[in-house]
Amino acid sequence: MKLTKTTLKEWFFYKFVFIISEYFIPFQAHFFPFNEFFINEFKEVMFLCGVINKTIKTLKSEIMKIVSKSIFTLLTAATLLLFISCESNEEAIPETIETKTELLESGEWLLKGFEDRVMYTFVNGERATYYGENDIFPNEPIPGKHAYSFQDDKITIDLNFGNIYTYEIKFSCDNNIIQFYNDKGELNSALYRKGSNYQQCL
User: Fold this and answer.
1) Which among 47, 50, 88, 147 is placed 20 to 30 Å from 95, CA to CA?
2) Quick one: 19 and 87 in the same domain?
3) Which among 105, 115, 116 has a CA at the least distance from the CA of 169?
4) How far is the first Cα of the chain from the last one, in angstroms, to the nearest whole number?
């Protein structure tokens, strides 16, 4: 017969009742003296209690192992999904000048390091600058716009007074982040699309 928790409890209960009925029924305020049979029965009960206690401890240990493995598996799966998501975003990088121009001119862009204070828009070859406070920006830009143009897969920005800079631009994070690299391949600045979930890619 297969031992279960219920059958073990029943066996223990009947053993206990048997011992009580056999050895602890009072006879004129005296208990029946212990004998070898009682000692053997008591030892058997105590041995079974020890077995049950060890079994419970073993079960707890196995359960903790299973829980730990499950948590590790979930964390591994989440990491893989995040990695795959980032790879998918990288695969969506625009290739043509037309696509880059359309993406650049389709949104409002926050300057990295000054996300709550500086915003740019790129419209019809002119970059406008907005100064705000605590993520609140005015409807009108500050006076003075800067001309920009695309040529040979690069953007050129004229900051006036002879200050002309050319950058290679790279899109990432589902086209919500733009990075500007100078001719030496060094990162000059980065812009974040306003209202997007770019924080998940940082």
Assistant:
1) 147
2) yes
3) 105
4) 61
Digits of tens for pLDDT over the chain (202 positions)? 555 555 666 666 656 655 555 555 444 334 444 455 545 655 565 566 565 666 667 766 777 778 677 787 777 766 666 655 544 444 455 668 889 999 999 999 999 999 999 999 999 999 999 999 999 999 999 999 999 999 878 999 999 999 999 999 999 999 999 999 999 999 999 999 999 999 999 9
* 62 and 82 housed in the same domain: yes
CA–CA separation, 84 vs 78, rounded Å? Answer: 10
Tell whether 177 and 125 lie within a shared domain: yes
Residue 183 is part of a domain; what is its CATH number?
2.40.128
Which residue type sits at 174?
Answer: D
Distance separating alpha carbons of residues 169 and 151, to the nearest angstrom: 12
**What domain range includes position 27?**
5-91
Counting the structural domains of the chain, the total is 2
The domain boundary, picked from 91, 110, 141, lies at 91
The DSSP bridge pattern shows strands 108-111 and 118-123 to be antiparallel
Among residues 60, 91, 122, the one where a domain terminates is 91
Count CB neighbours of 97 within 10 A: 14
